[in-house]
């Protein structure tokens, strides 16, 4: 059984599938990718059982075969082949895959496909078409705020919500929240689903800049399935009730600060040099007279710096974790941002100058 | 005591000095850099006691002071300052250094300079002027071959030898050797000195592309002192007799292989995917009919690839450590290289097509 294909296409498909492959597993078969051949295409599948990535490429195959190749080794070999033309041959008796390219020959020991976990899917209950770039943007701007600790259950997931003409993602952990809205072109029936942030992040890595402009999303059997660029990504959804995020964001602010985002980022970066992890990376804001003074202090020294702002309302002294502040500010594209605060224990809310595209929230750290 | 200087110049000098500063030391003072001010310059010194780097920069100082600032923190702050203008002030009573730049203010806790190790040097016994780029090239092309294991004593050093119109560096460990010659413009009295490879590598990192064209080298008190770009680097030399390298390189070759270097590098790179550390990263060369077949084998699979060569003499099967091969080939600039071999236990020698600028030697691995 021979397969002829293009090296770059094979490498791209392999690297997509590998996103779902655990680097270490108790089962050798999960460290592999499933290769399935049809007459004129090849499908490469990787999974850690939570996430399945199936990536297709054009190939001339003179037969049907399926086998599991060791993922990391296979990708490493393909990435370094001397020529764009690749000829592969699978020997199902010896379970050996031969790879030829130019004057290079290699044999790789493979596994039977029988033990590889394959998902049988029913018909989708819901199917929607989204802008591919929007999906990538939504993930990048929210998923970092989900809890990284499995103990927090559903908060390790991102709420994906369709309604009011928006596709919205929401992520919350104990200290901050991210909400981002992308307007939908077509009206779609409202729905909600929670998807693990870790898997969404992995998927966003394989959403390429070129290829399709849209992404199809299907909901089926408690799974969310995404189709784009010849790739199918199946993610588990999470059960349980997501937090009522709208209740959290109702803060009657008494201090509003309009600020140049990049200037604030650079200043917090300088402040972070003199903060200590044991002290929650604390930086202090002192807001008065249209100036925001940032200060930090640890046992090696201290710093302070003043930034011009447009201040509305009362003066305020408030402390934050510099890392959380930076993650929020770096995910904002606008040049300016408005911070809404009340006192040094109430959350600080980040919003754009106009509109409601995003909302970030950071809990302050109590200043001693 | 106030110091005015330029941020970029200060940052460059600091980063030079930091090359010699241990990232962790039992003594806090060694994790710092010594700052000395004169009327119109500032000298920054870092040392791990084996190596001393003193870097100068222009500065307007209204007094003389010396103190020790924590190196990593100080460099981190300077690198991120908002403006090119830096004003510093040292308070010798509080032992605090204030740093100002734009609207940024910082205070850093410093140490007394009294405990900082300062070397008093005698008059140099020898002083020579070398091409700066040549010195950097010599280090890059040889020092990697020195032994990394302190147990090997003088073999952790690089022999620097002046004679026959060349500045030569030689590095040897148990498995390979590197010799590189740079022609000297002026005739200089012959001498030999052995300098630790680790320190030479650190020094080569601070030899900049611009600045001076030459480097002055002085020998004094069993130290080698290098002057370039306003920086002075003092390195300990090593006592003891260096190996008689000329004796090793006398191999009567019976097989000569002329090869495209980059093609060989790419092929060994592909072979390395299927070699194992426990097996000394072994790759095999099979030389016959003007072809070099490279092969490798581990428990995941195997590979082989043929490269066209110009062969003189007998056919040969010989094994090598792929890592050592790569390090040697990557330090060669020529497009083609000639390998001289005798049998599968005698060393393989790498030489240019013409001339004697370099000689590398690799011991084969016995093929089972």
TrEMBL record, chains A, B:
Cross-referenced Pfam families: DNA_pol3_beta, DNA_pol3_beta_2, DNA_pol3_beta_3
Protein name: Beta sliding clamp
Family, per entry: Belongs to the beta sliding clamp family.
Record CDD domains: beta_clamp
Recorded name of the encoding gene: dnaN
SUPFAM superfamilies listed in its UniProt record: DNA clamp (SSF55979)
Source species: Mogibacterium kristiansenii
Primary location: cytoplasm
Signal sequence annotation: none
Record's function text: Confers DNA tethering and processivity to DNA polymerases and other proteins. Acts as a clamp, forming a ring around DNA (a reaction catalyzed by the clamp-loading complex) which diffuses in an ATP-independent manner freely and bidirectionally along dsDNA. Initially characterized for its ability to contact the catalytic subunit of DNA polymerase III (Pol III), a complex, multichain enzyme responsible for most of the replicative synthesis in bacteria; Pol III exhibits 3'-5' exonuclease proofreading activity.
InterPro entries found in the cross-reference section: DNA_clamp_sf, DNA_polIII_beta, DNA_polIII_beta_C, DNA_polIII_beta_cen, DNA_polIII_beta_N
GO molecular function: 3'-5' exonuclease activity; DNA binding; DNA-directed DNA polymerase activity
Subunit structure: Forms a ring-shaped head-to-tail homodimer around DNA.
GO biological process terms held by the UniProt record: DNA strand elongation involved in DNA replication
Domain DNA polymerase III beta sliding clamp C-terminal stretches: 247-366
Protein's UniProt keywords contain Nucleotidyltransferase: yes
UniProt KW keywords: Cytoplasm, DNA replication, DNA-binding, DNA-directed DNA polymerase, Nucleotidyltransferase, Transferase
Domain DNA polymerase III beta sliding clamp central: 129-242
GO cellular component: cytoplasm; DNA polymerase III complex
Subcellular location: Cytoplasm
Residues covered by the DNA polymerase III beta sliding clamp N-terminal domain: 1-119
């Amino acid at each position: 059984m021979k397969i002829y294909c293009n090296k770059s296409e094979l490498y791209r498909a392999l690297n997509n599938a590998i996103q779902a492959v655990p680097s270490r597993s108790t089962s050798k078969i999960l460290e592999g990718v499933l290769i399935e051949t049809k007459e004129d295409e090849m499908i490469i599948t990787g999974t850690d059982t939570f996430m399945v990535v199936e990536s297709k490429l054009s190939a001339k195959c003179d037969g049907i075969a399926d086998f599991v190749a060791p993922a990391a080794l296979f990708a490493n070999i393909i990435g370094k082949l001397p020529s764009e033309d690749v000829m592969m041959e699978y020997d199902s008796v010896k379970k050996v895959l031969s790879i030829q390219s130019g004057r290079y020959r290699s044999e790789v020991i493979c596994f039977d496909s029988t033990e590889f976990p394959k998902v049988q899917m029913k018909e989708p209950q819901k199917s929607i078409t989204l802008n591919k770039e929007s999906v990538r943007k939504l993930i990048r701007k929210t998923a970092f705020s989900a809890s990284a600790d499995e103990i927090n259950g559903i908060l390790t997931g991102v709420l994906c919500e369709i309604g009011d003409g928006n596709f919205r993602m929401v992520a919350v952990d104990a200290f901050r929240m991210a909400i981002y809205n992308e307007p939908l072109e077509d009206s779609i029936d409202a729905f909600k689903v929670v998807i693990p942030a870790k898997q969404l992040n992995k998927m966003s890595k394989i959403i390429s800049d070129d290829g399709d402009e849209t992404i199809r999303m299907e909901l089926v059997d408690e799974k969310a399935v995404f189709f784009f660029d010849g790739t199918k990504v199946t993610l588990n959804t999470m059960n349980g009730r997501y937090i009522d995020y709208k209740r959290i964001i109702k803060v009657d602010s008494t201090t509003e600060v309009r600020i140049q985002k990049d200037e604030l980022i650079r200043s917090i970066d300088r402040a972070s040099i003199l903060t200590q992890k044991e002290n929650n990376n604390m930086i202090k804001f002192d807001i008065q007279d249209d100036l925001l003074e940032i200060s930090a202090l640890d046992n090696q020294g201290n710093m302070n710096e003043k930034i011009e702002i447009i201040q509305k309302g009362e003066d305020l002294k408030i402390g934050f974790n510099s890392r959380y502040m930076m993650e929020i500010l770096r995910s904002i594209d606008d040049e300016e941002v408005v911070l809404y605060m009340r006192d040094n224990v109430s959350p600080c809310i980040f919003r754009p100058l106009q509109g409601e595209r995003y909302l970030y929230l950071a809990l302050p750290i109590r200043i001693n």
